[in-house]
Amino acid sequence: MGINRINPPELHQTPGYHHITVAETGRTAYLAGQCPLNAEGEVVQGGLDAQIDAVAANVLTALSAVDAKPSDIVRSVIYVVSDDQEVLTKAWNRLNESGIAEAFTTASTLLGVAQLGFPGQLIELDLTAALP
């Protein structure tokens, strides 16, 4: 399996992600939106940083279930409840310092949204992985 990440020189510089990801694979895993929920299904308290840490841990668990790792991610969409650029940048930076940082070197989109599915939820990740 090969995953090629491309940044055409004619496009703008990115803060770490690639404009294009090509996966030479026959198997793909589509993860349901990974939420900051604990094992009891409750939203993790403690603000955005705590929720990002919980989401990262949940992503690692989900990837492990299909024998994948963050570097196998070929597409990410990050939803953050905020319309503040500083909050969005903080979320991007924390994700890129987390145990799933390799997932964000691929084709990635970061969106500020008004609300997510659970009361108090501040972040959600939508991920696609090319399976080894």
Structure description:
This protein has 132 residues and is α+β, with helices and mostly antiparallel strands. It has one domain: RutC-like (60s Ribosomal Protein L30, Chain: A, 2-Layer Sandwich). Helix content is 23%, strand content 31%. It has 2 helices and 6 strands; from the N terminus they run E-E-E-H-E-H-E-E. The strands form 2 sheets. A 4-stranded mixed beta sheet has the order 3-6-4-5, covered by helices on one side. Helix 2 (85-95) links the parallel strand 4 (73-81) and strand 5 (107-113). The longest helix has 19 residues, at 47-65. It starts with a strand and ends with a strand.
Summarize the model shown.
The chain has 132 residues and is α+β, with helices and mostly antiparallel strands.
Topology:
Blueprint: E1 2-6, E2 20-24, E3 28-34, H1 47-65, E4 73-81, H2 85-95, E5 107-113, E6 123-130
Parallel strand pairs: 4-5
Antiparallel strand pairs: 1-2, 3-6, 4-6
Strand arrangement within the widest β-sheet reads 3-6-4-5
**Number of structurally distinct domains:** 1
* Helix count from the secondary structure assignment: 2
Poorly predicted spans: none
**Strand residue percentage:** 25-35%
Globular, elongated, flat, extended or rod-shaped: what is the shape? Answer: globular
* The CATH architecture: 2-Layer Sandwich
Structural class: alpha+beta
Computed CA radius of gyration, to the nearest angstrom: 15 Å
**Number of separate strands:** 6
Whole-Å distance between the termini? 6 Å
The CATH topology annotation reads as: 60s Ribosomal Protein L30, Chain: A
Mean pLDDT: 94
Q: Secondary-structure element order, as H and E?
A: EEEHEHEE
The level-1 CATH class: Alpha Beta
Helix content estimate? 10-25%
The CATH superfamily name is: RutC-like
Largest sheet: 4 strands, mixed
Protein name: RidA family protein
Family: Belongs to the RutC family.
InterPro entries: RutC-like_sf, YjgF/YER057c/UK114
Pfam family, one: Ribonuc_L-PSP
